[in-house]
Amino acid sequence: MPKQLIGSAFPGLELDAFHKGALKKVKLADFRGKWLVVIFYPADFSFVCPTELREMADSYDQFRKAGAEVVSVSTDSVYAHRAWAEQNEDIKKIAYPMLSDQAGRLSRALGVYAEDRGIAMRASFVVSPEGTIVACEMHDEAIGRSAAELLRKLEAAVAVRESDGGFCPASWRPGQKMVKPK
Fold first, then answer.
1. 49, 94, 98, 158: which one is catalytic?
2. How far apart are CA 48 and CA 80, in angstroms?
3. How far is CA 126 from each of CA 1, 52, 130, rounded to the nearest angstrom?
């Protein structure tokens, strides 16, 4: 992530998607007005990726309850997404759109594209209702993410936005005290 991403606009691109058994188009700009959690993963039919996507699927209702939509993105085609869902029960139960960034436009725009391999790195973004990036992280592809920690970051971002100048301290959880500068 070579450029400053926090505070910048999340690209509103339109991408092909596999969602609930169907192929469709998803325009990221259409999520404006809602919180958006975007998870990039390296590849379908891989080892760590299905564990993350399953955990996100299991936590999907909690993300929705926190006011967010979720999308996953890889550089695989929508046909690969569909084939993977047909062969893997965990992937089949995913209720959020699986986007295809085959050309790498979105991945490149966010600095998460691995040019030497043509894949998106393992990265996560929390995007405000105004379309501004408020949190992002990128991992080595061998290191899986925690849906619980991503949810905590979303909940903290929502709390900060709704507070009157509050900040969330380390490991903050909903219901805990926020801090305010003096």
1. 49
2. 17
3. 15, 16, 11
Task: List the alpha helices (DSSP H) in the chain.
Answer: 49-65, 78-87, 89-92, 105-109, 147-162
* Block mean pLDDT (10 aa), the chain, length 182: 82 97 97 98 94 96 98 98 96 97 98 96 98 96 94 97 90 92 82
49 is catalytic: yes
Which residues have C-beta within 8 Å of that of residue 36, sequence separation ≥ 6?
A: 10, 28, 68, 69, 70, 71, 125, 126, 127
* Residue 8 domain flag: no
CATH of the domain at 104: 3.40.30.10
